[in-house]
Amino acid sequence: MLQTFTTLPQLFAAFPTEQSAVDHFTSIRWAHGKFCPLCGNADEARIGTLTGTNVHKCYVCRKRFSIRVGTIFQDTKLSLRTWYAAIWMITAHPKGIASTTLATDLGITQKSAWFVLHRLRHAQRTRSFNMPLTGQVEIDETYVGGKSANKHHGRKVKGTGGAGKTIVIGAVSRQGGFVARVIDRTDTRTLDGFAHEVVSPQADLVSTDEHSGYRHLGRTFNHQVVRHGLGEYVNGDTHTNTIEGAWALLKRQIIGVHHWVSPKHLDQYVGEMSYRVNRRDMAKGDRVNDLLAQTEGPLPYKVLIA
Question: In sequence order, what are the residues at sequence separation of 6 or more whose Cβ sits closer than 8 angstroms to the Cβ of residue 164?
């Protein structure tokens, strides 16, 4: 039976033992029927459970497995109850949680906490966005990275305000739905391609600033421009205030919680923020169950740090 909860104490009360946590995850992962994560066999009659254990056996590939195999929990030494607490913290806090704080709260090393959070971000990114945006849509890009003036002399970067920073592009529908990712450049091909990938051609309105990379959007969309360079920020329904609010949330998360993130892993932090934005109307306990339902795909430590 699927457990529900609205507070962290209720979460621990719902799962007083590790077995109760295993049973809960099993009910979520096999909600549509048993399957073997090793060979893909979905014939429930040919998947058994060894008596008195949490070990399952597939009688097609003849291999044994636990319910964790093939998920972000594979090969972890932490209990599922500990993972549930981590999931609660990363989904409940509007700006996420730092690995140092999670390590203290869970009584684990900072290295383990960092790995736990990156596995959860890997799961959050899997199905955070899965449909084209409709209605009134805003597209904008932002630059993430410290100010050159605040860097050591040897690390200062000459150029415009975006020099030496990592670029993030995003799109948000005012009717709901947000998607963002790291990009290498802001040329027409990149910005135009992003818009056509994530926005429905039937969208009522696509608002951007005057960046030249968006100049061809009018061929497909009802594209309107707000000209920030002329001091214009709203023109009727045309503005980018909603997505700029999302960028403010992302930067508060990075500056206020993590303080600094590497360009290599920035896309995962962006995915984490996008996940919370897209599920902001869900109850906290429902967000935990939602994330548990999309934990497919292991993330080995060697792959993460490669």
Answer: 145, 148, 157
Helix (H, G, I), strand (E, B) or coil at 64: strand
- 143, 183 contact by CB (below 8 A): no
Domain ranges, ordered by start, for the chain:
136-278
Using one digit for the tens of pLDDT, what is the confidence trace for 23-82? 999 999 999 999 999 999 999 999 999 999 999 999 999 999 999 999 999 999 999 999
pLDDT tens-place string over residues 273-304: 999 999 989 999 999 999 999 999 888 888 88
Mean per-residue pLDDT, 107-134: 86
Region 246-253 average pLDDT: 92
Question: CATH 3.30.420.10: does it fit domain 136-278?
Answer: yes
* Helices within the chain (DSSP H only): 8-14, 18-29, 80-92, 99-106, 110-126, 188-198, 241-253, 266-278, 284-292, 301-305
Both structure tokens of 161? 């305000």
Length of the chain as a residue count: 306
In this prediction the pTM is 0.85
